Amino acid sequence: MLEQCGLKGHQIGGALISRKHANFIENAGDATTADCLALMAEARRRAREQFGVELEHEVVLLGEIAVE
Question: Model's pTM, two decimal places?
Answer without folding.
Answer: 0.86
